[in-house]
Each structure stands twice: as C-alpha cells, then as structure tokens.
Design goal:
By secondary structure, the protein is mainly beta.
Length: 992
C-alpha cells in the first residue's frame, strides 16, 4: 500500500512539473507571396501526437507547448515549415509550386497531373506577366512543345496564327478551339476594313490564371466536332478567401522597327550610281536630257534636296497600359474585379490600337449543397490603320522602301506631298492624315453557373453564357490624299453583329473506394449563334459632309445574315487503381446545322490510358532519385466543322438577264456533307528525376480524312464545283519538353526550360488529283509531299560571261529565256522543328527571366524583293542595299544579274526560286528584369506589395533572311507586311 502511495505521489509531482514546464504561445501565419493570412493552417508540436491548433480567419493561432519545442506548420498548396516555438510568432509560408502544378484544367473539369492520360501542357499567370503584348496568344511563343505561334504582321492588336501539331486541313479552319471558363468563344480576325484584328484581344492577359493546351485525342475529343486542331482552355482569376486587396499597375513602353539583319535600302548616292549603271547597260547616256524622263539621271541630282523616306514614314511607337484589380473574399463569397485600359501607337503614322475592358468574377456558397457564380467580361476596342499586307502605294513600309530619295515626302507648308507620279500620286503620310480606316468593337462575354451537390459523390452543374459583339467600321478615301477623285471622296461603312448563346449542363459522380477511384461525367450542351452584316459604299462624297447622305452616288449595298445551331451529348469516364493504372474514355455526339441533312450528326470518341511506373513496389528502391515515371497512350477521333455556313445547301444568287433582275442557282446542294475527321494516336512518357528535372516525350500521328474541299463539277451540271468530303492528310511528329530546377536555395533560385518539336505533314489523297493549287499558285498541295510545297521557276543564277539571269530547263540545261524555265518543288513554309528556351534567375527580391523561340527547316518567299531587287526593271523605285551586289565583269558569280534600264528579261519574277530563302531564326522573345520591394518595409507605409520591372519584347532575332524579319505567316508568302517590332517597357505594380 505504501509503495502504491509513493508511486501516485511521484506521478502527481511529475505531472505538475510537466504542466509548469509548458507555456501558451500565439502567432500568425501569412502567405509569403501576398502577405495575406493563411486560414486553416495546421500547427503541430513536433514529437507530439495530440498538441495541435488551427489558424482562424485572420491567420492567428494559440497553442500550449513544452519549453524548447519545435512547431510544424502545414497547409495544402504550401511548403511545410518547421520553426522553434516562441512568443508572438510570425510565420510565412511559401507556395508549393509542385503542389500547385499538381492540379490542371482539362475538358469540363480538373484533374491531378498524376492522373492525366492525354498530352497536355499548360502555362500559369506568372509566365504571362510583364510581356508587352496586346493579347495573350502572342505571349505563348516558345513556351510549349508542339504549339507554334506565327505572326503575319507586327501591327498593334493584330491576329496570330496558332498551329497545334501541324496543319490538319486545306480549306477548313486550322485554328484551335478556345474555351474560356468552360464555354467556347470566337477567335480570329473579326474587324471591319482594318488589315488585321484579333477577337482574343478582348481578354486582358492579366486576368488569366492559367492556359492549358489539349493536344491529343484523349485530352481534346470531348469537344468533338471542334477539336481537330486542339483546344486551348483559358481559366480566369478568382478571388481568394481573406482580406481584400487592391492592386494598381502601370506600364509604359516604346517600340521601333526590328532590323537585326541590317536590311535596308540605298541612299541617294548609291541609288543614283545604280540607276546610271542600268541606263548605260541599256545603251544610253544617263547625262543625256533627251532620254526618257526616268533615264535621265545626271549627277547634279545629288545637289538638290534629298530625303530619307524610311525615316519619314516611321516613328517610335508608344504603349501605355493601366490596370486596377480588387480581389478578396470570405469563407463563402469570393470575388475578383479588374479594370484595364491600354493604348498602343504603331511605328507608322495612322496605326493605333486601344481598348478598355472590365471583368467581374464572383463565387458564392449559398449553403453546403449549393454554389453559384458568374464570369463577366466586357470591353471596347478601337483599331485604325492604313492599307498594308500588300503592295499598295499607300502602304508605308512599301513606299518607304521604294520611293527615290529625291522625291519629297512633305510640301513646304508641312503637309504631305501627293505630287508623286512614280507612286501613283499617293503618299502614305497623306493617307494617314486625311483618310479613315478604322474598326470599333463592343464586346461582351459572360456566364453564370449553379452547382448542386446533394451528396459528397454527386455534383450537378449548369453553366449558361452569352457572347455578343458589335463591330462598326469606316473606310474613307479623302480627295486630299487621292487626287484622282475629282475633289470628292469615297466612303465605305460596315456594321456587324454577332450573338452566341450556350448552355452546358453536366452531372458528375466521383468516388474513392479503397484503391479504386471512379469518375463519370454526363453532359449536354447547346449553342445558337447568328450574325448580321450591313455594308454600304458611296462615291462622290462631299468632303465637307463625309457621310452617306442623299445625293451621293451609292454604288454598292450589301446585307448578309447567318445562323448556326449545335446540339451535343457527351460523357467522360475515369478510372484508376491504386494511383498506378489509369484509363479514361470520352464519347460525344454533335448535331450541327452546317452539314447536310443526311450527315447532320457525328460521333467522336477517345480512349486514353497511363501507368504510373514510379508507384510500383519494384520501383521503391529508386524513389530517392526517381519521383515520376509515367507511360501514356491514347487514340481517338475528333472533328473539324470550321467552314462557311450553308455549303451543304443549294443556294441562289442575284443575276441580271436581258435587263431583268432575278435569281439563279449558285451552288448545288450536298445533303451528305459532313465533318472532317481527325484520327489521332499518341504515346508519351512523363518523368521527374532527382527532384530537379522533369519533362515529357511524346510521339504522335494524326490522320485527317473526309477533308472539306471544293470538287470540280462537269460544266453540264451548271456548276463549277461543289463542296464535298474528299482527300486525306497525315501529320506525324515528336515533342520533347524539359524543365530543370538548377538552384533552389534561400537567396538563389534558377529554373530553366527547353522544348522542341518536329512535325511532318504528308498529303495522302486528293480524290484522284495529283495536286491542288493554293492561292496565287506559288504553293501547291501535292500528293505524297508536305501539305504546303513551293512550286516555282528554277532560277540558276548569273551567267558569269555576260551577267544575264540563267534558268534551268526541263532537260537540266541552262537558258536565259524565262519561258524555258522548269517549275520545281523547292521546299515548304512548314518548319521542320520549332521550340524555345526559357530561364528565370532570382536573387532575393531581384528576378531576371528570358524567353526565346526558334524555328527551322522552312522556306519563305520574299516577294517584296521583286520590287527592290529588280535588276533595273523598276528603275523609278529605290532598291535594297543587297542589289548593289550585281554582276560587273566577266567571271563574277554569286551575285545579282546586271541591272538594265527597263529590264525586259523577267529576271526578277516573283514566282521563282531566286527570292526563296531559308526561314530559320532564333529570337530572344522576351527579357524581363523585376524587383519586389521588401514587404516588411512596405507595411510601414500601408502597402502589401510593390514591384518594378522593365521588359523587352523581340529583343534580337538571329536570321539570314534578306528582309526586316523572317516571319511571314504559316504559308511563308506575306506581301508588304507590317514588320515585327521591338518593344521596350517599364512597369510598376502596387498592392494595398
């Protein structure tokens, strides 16, 4: 009894001692990224199974701990932290980039990266920040394997051409489907009269949380008839639980013509010597005033006023961008609001793009069963320009290159000179000053959703959205700029309205039963869209009243309407066992009003599987150095419906016969017209080794069949052609992506990424035809060749004896007669490889990021050099500096033919291999240097964050193309294009 009593007393004193040794401490947990409190973080005493606490809505906690204890602080999506316990603790948690990357957006939901079966790549908002571009599509260049972004123009607010795993169609569209917050949107050029516009510029890039690209059938086929060219999913930002914060951003920049290849035109002395030589080679004396006007070129011309037309028509462009965002929320309601204004002035007078748009994103939890929200984006954009993208006399880059330096750009009173007979009395500076060519766009895109979760495993969701676009365009040719209009003007106006309404409804069941996970999604979607266009053209406009009014000579009135409807049913099933074996299947049936009554419905499907080899027991010994090893494979069929309305219908057109206006058949009906079908196979490997290297390798093939083409008809039918499903095409390729975390320490961080892809297209069949002609005939679609193949006269070079141009003939001999020249297949504008290298280096609060892109194996046709490297055939135009390298004496080779005044040998024909060049380039796309001010210092003046940065876009391009820039669109044929520009910018972000 005494022994038991002594034991009890000892335990009592021990318990009292332990209690006395404990103390209660408090603290606060915040996010290192934005200083906001971390709500719901877990604080545990290291070594204890019971002592723990949870942070409250302000991030505060209180816990009793033994003396000398250490605390472990954890929160989902953040890096765990272990700290020594003390009073009044302040703990910062960093975002876990690996945890954040673990969840990716896919079709109609999200998935863990570990569970994916398809080929998917994504970029986050951080990778899009600070790039001085007007739309997010231009920010993707060089960042993702298999995704090629090509610019057709450097004009502000212009469109880009995005191709995912090659080009899959000849006449149907090749652009991917864009889906914003779950609903498809329009994309592409949607302006009136302007050279180029971009519907995607209505989205503020700073509003984007992530962009996911679905590349193979397993990832994209759930979008059915619109997924053949890949799918780009855009998720906009949402509010986060915690204190509201206001962020203000301001950016300012300048841009200039990119010319990293020292391309240029001759100065006055060079051009005069060149022209005098051409005149002598024609057997005339350039000092003889009796010569034709253009053949009289005395040296005294250099004593008169001389001008630099490239300087006259170019300027430094300007960019300014201002933005306010307000975000925050409670446990049940979260919001994100933004207001943005941007204005960009081009490097040529008369070019401008500006926009203002606002976004309201909100989510609210009504109760534990119901959740609702809205995504609203609305804006206005204005774009103005002068004609480019062809060899117009009013095109500033074309005129700047071709005007002779002794022609004056301005009159004595400072007004533009329009007395320019050699340029059809047209001055692009007058066009910019007096003419109108603009497009205004009012855009709305919004959706609301309601989500009901009656039980944990089952979710019903309906999302309903509308997209509205109102476009107003004006083109006015003023008599001040066009002297051939007898003192009157010409006016064209265009009004377009586009409306689209979509409802998307899904039911999702998902459950985890031991090692088995199952998700089944069933959905229905319907879309109705219509458009209207009203066009008017009037001549004889009174410049005092430059509008359509009574008394004008109205030459043309046009009105068009179009309606498209689509109904869809779809389903997705996901299963995985023990996070090792995954399988996904999707099935979709689309019915579209575009296609014939016998083929209105199409069925599209996919199956994908993956194996997480790293989760196998036999791989346990490798876990120290191998974190991920996944094998993926998929196959499926999706479609392409991107064609004009009513091609399946027999249509009529207006016609005048014997003075009587009536209707006649225009196109024959094809009730069997259906979708292009894209059958895609993909196999890939994902890996993550040494906790620092991650990447993927993919091999794919995709075959397009039932291509939508215009097939020639017998003249006895009364029609020239009929759109039908014929022909097939195949793309095969390989992609490689590698990301490395080279340094990851307290002060230093260095990440690097590399991607490269190879794609090879091949035309398999064209309904019995050997080829089809593309555009002006410079490119053909040959069976057995790449989709785009240049087909040009075979230019050999210069005859070293007399300096004449030589051409290869059909028998391989040489001839100085261009009519004897053979036509040859001479390469493709499709690149053999594309890719990018990017890196980010951080030291404490200072960060440097560099993004590069490269392409190679493609050809480009520089048709502009037909004018400025013309061998004397265009003696009244300035010439490029490279034209000075011409034949001067017997034995000269590797040079241009000798210049001859009014050269009639056709040596400078555009459709020859002479102006075909390798389009390879390596571009330093974006360089950004930023500094984030220390939060502890900012808090003293009431700021949550502040950041200053400078950025350069298109900093330098390595290439050997004899022109300003190597990019000329996916077909390599651009003419008179607005060149790519360099932009330098500074910016400031402040968060309250």
């Amino acid at each position: 009894m005494e022994k038991r009593f002594m034991t009890f007393v000892a335990c009592l004193f021990l318990s009292i001692g332990m209690a006395l040794a404990q103390s209660r401490i408090s603290g606060k947990v915040t996010s290192a990224e934005d200083g906001q409190p971390v709500v719901g973080a877990t604080i545990k005493v290291v070594g204890s199974k019971t002592a723990s606490a949870i942070t409250d809505v302000n991030g505060n906690f209180s816990i009793s701990v033994p003396a000398g204890s250490r605390l472990e602080v954890t929160y989902i999506g953040m890096v765990p932290k272990t700290v020594k316990a003390s009073s009044n603790m302040s703990i910062e948690l960093n975002a876990d980039s690996h945890a954040l990357d673990d969840v990716i957006v896919v079709g109609y939901g999200t998935t863990r990266r570990e569970a994916k079966t398809g080929s998917i790549t994504s970029v986050s908002s951080k990778e899009l920040a600070d790039v001085p571009a007007t739309s997010f599509d231009k920010m993707l260049a060089g960042k993702m394997a298999g995704v090629s972004i090509t610019q057709t123009t450097g004009q502000p607010g212009s469109n880009s051409q995005i191709r995912i795993r090659g080009i899959s169609s000849i006449s149907a569209g090749n652009e991917p489907l864009y889906v914003v917050d779950g609903l498809p949107i329009t994309s592409g050029d949607d302006g009136a009269f302007t050279n180029s516009s971009n519907a995607l510029s209505a989205i503020n890039p700073d509003d984007i949380e992530s962009i996911t690209v679905l590349k193979d059938a397993a990832a994209a086929s759930v979008y059915g008839s619109r997924a053949a060219n890949g799918v780009i999913l855009i998720t906009t930002k949402s509010g986060k639980e915690g204190k509201s914060h206001l962020t203000a951003r301001a950016k300012f920049g300048i841009s200039q013509l990119a010319n990293d290849n020292n391309y240029g035109v001759m100065n006055a002395q060079q051009l005069l010597e060149y022209e005098r030589t051409a005149i002598r080679n024609a057997g005339m004396d350039p000092d003889n005033p009796a010569n034709p006007a253009n053949a009289y070129r005395p040296m005294s011309i250099l004593q008169g006023p001389l001008y630099n037309w490239m300087d006259a028509v170019t300027r430094n462009g300007k960019m300014q961008d201002y933005e306010l965002t307000l975000s925050g929320g409670s446990a049940r309601t979260k919001y994100y609001n933004s207001l943005n204004y941007q204005k960009t002035e081009g490097i040529f007078p008369g070019f401008e793009f500006s926009r203002i748009n606002f976004r309201v994103n909100a989510d609210h939890e009504i109760n534990r069963f119901l959740k609702t929200g809205a995504r609203i984006n609305a804006g206005y954009s204005y774009s103005e320009d002068v004609p480019t993208q062809n060899f117009y006399y009013s095109n500033p880059i074309f005129t700047g290159m071709t005007m002779e330096p002794w022609q004056k750009p301005f009159n004595e009173d400072g007004t533009p000179n329009v007395n320019l007979p050699t340029n059809s009395n047209t001055n692009p500076l007058a066009t910019a000053m007096y003419d109108d060519q603009w497009s205004k766009r009012y855009a709305f895109n919004g959706s609301v959703y309601l989500e009901w979760k009656p039980i944990k495993q089952l979710t019903f969701k309906t999302t309903d959205g509308a997209e509205l676009s109102f476009i107003n365009g004006r083109r006015y040719w003023s008599p001040k700029a066009h002297t051939n209009q007898n003192g009157t003007g010409t006016l064209q106006t265009d009004q377009m309205i586009y409306r689209s309404f979509t409802t998307s409804n899904t039911a999702t069941y998902q459950d985890q039963l031991g090692k088995h996970y199952l998700r089944v999604l069933l959905g229905q979607e319907a879309n109705y869209s219509d458009s209207e266009e009203n066009f008017e053209s009037s001549k004889g406009i009174d410049p005092q009243i430059p509008y359509h009014v009574n008394g004008n000579s109205t030459n043309d009135i046009g009105y068009g309407i179009g309606t498209v409807t689509m109904m869809s049913w779809f389903g997705i099933a996901d299963y995985n066992f023990d996070n090792r074996y995954f399988i996904q299947a999707s099935l979709r049936s689309d019915g579209s009003s575009i296609f014939g009554k016998n083929s209105r419905w199409g069925t599209f499907w996919s199956v994908g599987t993956s194996w997480n080899i790293h989760n196998e027991k036999f791989m346990e010994s490798a876990k120290d150095w191998l974190q991920v090893l996944k094998l993926r494979a998929s196959y499926g069929i999706n479609g392409n419906d991107n064609i004009s309305n009513y091609l399946s219908y027999g249509t009529y057109t207006q016609s005048v016969y014997n003075g009587i206006t009536g209707l006649r058949p225009d196109k024959p009906a094809n009730p069997d017209l259906s979708w292009e079908k894209n059958k895609a196979f993909n196999v890939g490997i994902d890996f993550h080794v040494l906790k620092r290297l991650s990447g993927s390798i993919d091999f794919y093939t995709r075959k397009t069949s039932d291509m939508l083409l215009a097939k020639s008809q017998s003249s006895t039918s009364g029609f020239n052609s009929m759109t039908t499903n014929i022909g097939s095409l195949r793309n095969t390729g390989v992609e490689f992506q590698l990301n490395a975390s080279i340094i990851d320490s307290k002060d230093w961080k260095w990440d690097m990424g590399f991607n490269i892809s190879h794609n090879q297209s091949k035309v398999l069949e064209l309904a019995g035809e050997d080829y089809l002609t593309y555009g002006d005939g410079f490119i053909r679609h040959f069976v057995g060749e790449k989709l785009y193949t240049f087909y040009l006269r075979d230019y050999y070079g210069v005859n070293p004896v007399n300096g004449e141009a030589l051409w290869r003939t059909e028998d391989g001999s040489l001839s100085n007669n261009v009519s004897n020249a053979r036509y040859v297949k001479c390469g493709s504008p499709e690149p053999t490889y594309t890719g990018g290298i990017n890196t980010t280096v951080s030291w404490r609060n200072l960060t440097l990021s560099v993004v590069t892109e490269f392409k190679g194996g493609n050809k480009v046709l520089i048709a502009d050099n037909n004018f400025v490297n013309s061998d004397g055939s265009r003696v009244n135009m300035n010439q490029s500096v490279t034209a000075l390298n011409y034949w001067k004496k017997p034995g000269d080779t590797g040079c241009n033919p000798k210049p001859i005044y009014n050269n009639s040998t056709s040596s400078s024909l555009t459709n020859s291999t002479r102006y075909l060049e390798k389009g390879d380039y390596f571009r330093i796309k974006d360089v950004t240097l930023s500094y984030s001010f220390d939060r502890s210092l900012l808090s003293k003046i009431g700021l949550q964050g502040a950041r200053v940065y400078t950025s350069a876009l298109n900093l330098y391009t390595f290439h050997k193309v004899n022109f300003w820039d190597p990019e000329r669109g996916v077909d390599g044929l651009g003419q008179g294009i607005y060149p790519v520009t360099k932009t330098f910018m500074v910016g400031l972000d402040i968060t309250l």
